[in-house]
């Protein structure tokens, strides 16, 4: 089975971008750890970070046709703006877990609403990079029970 891990704009700067909010780990650190976790569970992990909305949408379109069973997505700022990303996820039949490193609910009001949450089966916010691991666990577990 395959899981897709999508990360939106500015997350390529993790490690140096406002580390007091987003932590000191780089995105590579996080993805490498997740890949190991996936492999241990017998899953293949495909990861994409993009600063372009359309590229994230294209990846979702591909996942919907290539047998990908779940998507872990940190849409970053697109969470709060992108109906297009929501529409794309609504075409995907598998499990979708939304992850935010920071607790968006204790930050500025404009971060409190996420379009993606209207589709997400689960939402994790404020647990830092641990959130990605929990999201992957959840996807692996639901497929086990399916
Ligand atoms: C974020 C929260 C968003 O509000 C912000 O725009 C991000 C990262 C998070 O992981 O905490 O870029 O999704």
UniProtKB/TrEMBL annotation:
Protein name per Swiss-Prot or TrEMBL: 3-dehydroquinate dehydratase
GO biological process: amino acid biosynthetic process; aromatic amino acid family biosynthetic process; chorismate biosynthetic process; quinate catabolic process
Lineage: Bacteria, Pseudomonadati, Pseudomonadota, Gammaproteobacteria, Oceanospirillales
Active site: 22 (proton acceptor), 100 (proton donor)
Name of the gene encoding the protein in the UniProt record: aroQ
Residue positions binding substrate: 74, 80, 87, 101-102, 111
PROSITE patterns per the UniProt record, alphabetical: DEHYDROQUINASE_II
Family designation: Belongs to the type-II 3-dehydroquinase family.
Top-rank taxon: Bacteria
Binding partners and assembly: Homododecamer.
Involved pathway(s): Metabolic intermediate biosynthesis; chorismate biosynthesis; chorismate from D-erythrose 4-phosphate and phosphoenolpyruvate: step 3/7
Enzyme category, top tier: lyase
Function, in words: Catalyzes a trans-dehydration via an enolate intermediate.
Alphabetized UniProt keyword annotations: Amino-acid biosynthesis, Aromatic amino acid biosynthesis, Lyase
EC number: 4.2.1.10
Entries under NCBIfam families matching the protein: aroQ, PRK05395.1-1, PRK05395.1-2, PRK05395.1-3, PRK05395.1-4
One Pfam entry name: DHquinase_II
Site (described: Transition state stabilizer): 17
Record-level Gene Ontology MF annotations: 3-dehydroquinate dehydratase activity
The keyword Translocase is annotated on this UniProt entry: no
Gene3D superfamilies on file: Dehydroquinase, class II
Catalyzed reactions: 3-dehydroquinate = 3-dehydroshikimate + H2O
């Amino acid at each position: 089975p395959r899981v897709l891990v999508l990360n939106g704009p500015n997350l390529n700067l993790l490690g140096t971008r406002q580390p007091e909010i987003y932590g000191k780990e780089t995105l590579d650190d996080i993805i490498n750890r997740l890949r190991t976790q996936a492999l241990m569970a017998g899953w293949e992990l495909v990861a994409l970070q993009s600063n372009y909305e359309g590229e994230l949408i294209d990846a979702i379109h591909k996942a919907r046709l290539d047998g990908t069973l779940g998507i872990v997505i940190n849409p970053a700022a697109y969470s709060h703006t992108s109906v297009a990303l929501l529409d794309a996820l609504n075409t995907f039949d598998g499990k979708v877990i939304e992850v935010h490193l920071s607790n968006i609910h204790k930050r500025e009001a404009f971060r409190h609403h996420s379009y993606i949450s209207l589709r997400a089966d689960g939402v994790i916010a404020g647990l830092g990079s641990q959130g990605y691991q929990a999201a992957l666990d959840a996807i692996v577990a639901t497929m086990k029970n399916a």
